[in-house]
Write a structure and sequence with these properties.
Blueprint: E1 51-55, E2 61-65, E3 77-81, E4 86-93, H1 97-104, E5 115-120, H2 123-134, H3 136-150, E6 155-161, E7 167-173, H4 181-191, E8 194-199, H5 202-209, H6 220-223, H7 233-238, H8 245-248, H9 263-269, E9 280-281, E10 286-293, E11 298-303, E12 310-314, H10 315-326, H11 334-344, H12 365-394
Parallel strand pairs: 2-5, 7-8
Antiparallel strand pairs: 1-2, 1-4, 3-4, 3-5, 6-7, 9-10, 10-11, 11-12
Helix pairs in contact: 3-4
């Protein structure tokens, strides 16, 4: 296979992986793992790792054991053990990096659930596999008609046929628990196959379909994000975001995964901030929290009697008042604290243009000159016309 998404040279050769037109990883997608140890030899008396990673439809991957010690490379099509029958997949990773992937996914090497690789796929196996994959769209269309006829509240998102064509996995999404026993009997009798139903989440469905997010880039879940962590509204509260469902929800209808990206930085910055539900007891009255600037370390408070007039304080000043309130003492008034902050705060440095000290509106100057020139020409025409009129009158 050739690299489709890698940058290429004039001759069509990939510039990124340097494989001269033959992609060593099989493809360029979010689940592809490049074997950086492929050119390294193993130490003496050490046998190659007999586990391999096999990729199936929609990026599904599993680990299989090469118990027959066959010579298999990345990109080979193999027949693997399933229950029942066999399945066809593509080898995505071999060697020592498989240990790293198994450790990452918490899969034990001596697990009994790991099945074995039967053989390299023959041409007959590939033909049967291709024929089964060609039936998927038509089976999906007819299956959706059956679901709507039965009145089930579910959506069939995809169908994956097994390599031998005897079994099909139906992926669906549903908001509630669905009783699909009658549906399984209908599907098995209509298509003469074994049926397995598997529910997927809305995030996985959005990752499969793909799309463009509100940031203008391709969805993270369909490009590089592999694990879907839970996202709560508290992540938006910590980042001082408005709780608007239309802006916080992604294409899957759930909260955006990117809300968790900067959450740790906000939590570290908020460690020294006081709680927002605490009232400050000052000499002039009780002050209530209004808003904060996390990265500058500023908080705005207003008196309970005059909530429209805000006063800016630092985190240190606020913590000092809270400490005095715990000792049944009142702190200084907000006006005095804000005045001290203005005196202690140095003037902010203004950014200057160092490249020739040019103005941003320097390209607009010719336009003004043209307008002035047009005005001068009009005045000259009027002046000449007035002179002609006076000359005619004198004649």
């Amino acid at each position: 296979m050739s690299c489709k998404s890698c940058s290429t040279s004039i001759n069509g050769l990939p510039l990124g992986c340097k494989n001269n037109g033959a992609c060593a990883s099989g493809s360029c997608d979010k689940l592809t793992v490049f074997d950086w140890l492929s050119n390294m030899t193993l130490p003496n008396n050490q046998e190659p790792f007999d586990m391999m990673e096999i990729r199936f439809k929609n990026g599904r991957k599993s680990f299989y054991r090469n118990s027959k010690k066959m010579t298999i490379c990345i990109g080979d099509i193999v027949a693997v053990e399933t229950s029942p029958g066999h399945d066809i997949g593509v080898v995505s990773l071999t060697g020592e990096l498989v240990k790293v992937q198994m450790k990452k996914k918490n899969v034990a090497v001596d697990s009994e659930e790991i099945k074995q690789i039967y053989r390299k796929a023959s041409q007959k196996d590939i033909d049967i596999w291709t024929t089964a994959r060609g039936r998927e769209k038509e089976v999906q269309r007819k299956s959706r008609l059956i679901v709507s006829r039965l009145g089930l509240k579910m959506k069939l998102s995809d169908i994956e046929f097994q390599g031998d064509g005897n079994k099909a996995t139906f992926y669906y999404t549903a908001d509630e628990r669905v009783d699909f026993r009658l549906l399984i009997r209908e599907l098995a009798g209509t298509f003469s196959i074994r049926v397995e139903m598997k529910q997927v989440g809305l995030r996985q469905e959005a990752a499969r379909l793909g799309g463009i997010g509100s940031c203008g880039r391709e969805l993270c879940c369909s490009t590089w994000l592999t694990d879907f962590r839970s996202v709560s509204t508290s992540a938006a509260r910590y980042q001082q975001l408005s709780l608007n469902p239309q802006k916080l929800a992604g294409q899957c209808g759930k909260l955006k995964c990117c809300l968790n990206y900067e959450l740790d930085s906000y939590l570290d910055a908020l460690k020294h901030f006081p709680k927002t539900d605490l009232w400050l007891q000052t000499e002039k009255g009780t002050a209530v929290f209004q808003k904060m600037d996390i990265f500058r370390g500023w908080l705005w408070y207003a008196y309970k009697e005059n909530p429209a007039h805000w006063h800016k304080l630092t985190v240190e000043q606020t913590n000092q008042i809270i400490a005095l309130n715990k000792d049944n003492k009142k702190g200084q008034s907000l006006e005095e604290l804000a005045l001290d902050l203005e005196v202690d705060t140095p003037e902010e440095s203004h950014f200057t243009e160092l490249v020739g000290q040019d103005s941003l509106t320097r390209f607009d100057k010719p336009k003004f000159k043209k307008k002035r020139k047009k005005g001068r020409n009009q005045r000259n025409k009027n002046y000449r016309g007035n002179n002609k009129n006076t000359q005619n009158k004198n004649k």
